[in-house]
Amino acid sequence: MVRFLRRHSLDKSNSQSHLRQQHESGSGTDSDHTEMAEPAGNGRAPPRSRLARDGPPSDLDIMKEKFAKLLLGEDMSGTGKGVSSALALSNAVTNLAASVFGEHRKLEPMAPDTKERWKKEVGWLLSVSDHIVEFVPTRQTAENGTTMEIMSTAQRRDLQMNIPALRKLDNMLIGYMDNFVDQTEFWYEKGGDNKRDDDKWWMPTVKVPAEGLSDVTRRWLQYQKECVNQVLKAAMAINAQVLVEMEVPEIYIESLPKKGKTSLGDTIYRNITDEEFDPVEFLESVDLSTEHKVLDLKNRIEASTIIWKRKMQTKDTKSSWGSIISFEKREQFEERAETILHLLKLQFPGTPQSQLDISKIQYNRDVGYALLESYSRVLESLAYSVMSRIEDVLGADAAATNLTASEVARRQMEMNMPRKLDAREEMEKLNEAPASMTLYDFMGWHFDQDELMKKKEEGTLDEAGEAMLLKKAPSLAPKKFSYVDSLAGGMRSPSARH
Q1: Which pLDDT score, from 0 to 100, does residue 378 have?
Q2: How many CB atoms lie within 10 A of CB 284?
Q3: Could you count the other beta carbons within 10 Å of the beta carbon of residue 39?
Q4: How far apart are CA 240 and CA 414, in angstroms?
């Protein structure tokens, strides 16, 4: 042992003297020093330099940290007291959206680095859906030509349909935000000059010229708002469908009263069960002056809907969930309640999540549902925010041009009328719509179609005019929409945390 230590120290001193001689003579090259610094044969990489350790983290390091927190269930102690994987993933998407879009308060494109971060990190979180599979029957041909049917794995059908649709909605929203580049007809007050005194006091005040916006810019803003509105409706439809498919937690059912009348109250129950029922007149008769009252009405109606469904599923009249009212009546009451929920969703899209939605998200164990719900919810919130910014500009234009309150209300009503929400139908409309249009592109649209048609009938229309006639202008006329008979759930936003 002594001989080994002596020989080891002797070899070490000889190597140090050899290196000193090379350094003094200048004959050693950088490659020689590099080779000497590398460990020989131990298979371990050299430690990183202090500059590399103190520098910015790489994408791999960030991804490792994010997925490590997901595996720990947001419990850094490692004691296993964290939340479920589905809730951790839902919170990760929500927190990412809040950090990326939380400070975006103007109608302007996103910063390139912020946009790149959102696309990259949301792609990491959505990559989990690639490994959520189900068994599907497939045909396989053997070498001898015989065909047999076997079960193979494929991505779950709801994820296969909705994840690409949501990614497209995401890209479209960011594209619409990019359209507001180099706008000169409206601007925002600087931080110290902001004197907004309404309910959005923290938002910057938008300014327009004294004579208001030009007609082309006003039409273009309305067109952009309609495009964003289409994205909002599609995201709302997907989110509502996912929440409907989520299982109602038992802890929520246990907290409900045994009668829907107890949850609704005498006045609301009497109105819903009346023979002559009009949902619009019902909402006009209810006090919805504050967000708290709107949310309270949603909670009451959703609770009564769950109670009635429970009673319809229970045939034992002696049970606490039994019902003495006929099945047809209960079904009619449920449809009326869901119609009211749908109208509340359209009339007050910025309200927080209801108690039923929070319970479903909190106790959900399906990772696929968690991804679809959280991603559609943040897109829904972003689309609503962009629409609110456009409405701020149009409101400032209305104030500059001295529009009356009735004219402003009529314009808002034309843009916000109730419409049927169907995810597949909304996505088909989005596929047919132009992907993006800046103000410069919009100014090229020809609005005087009557004159071109007159020239065509007279036979004096040239090739350029015929091309302009074939070019379809955006439809700005109000559309007629129908109600949804059965669609429950409310608007969710990242601000309403669970």
Answers
A1: 95
A2: 9
A3: 9
A4: 24
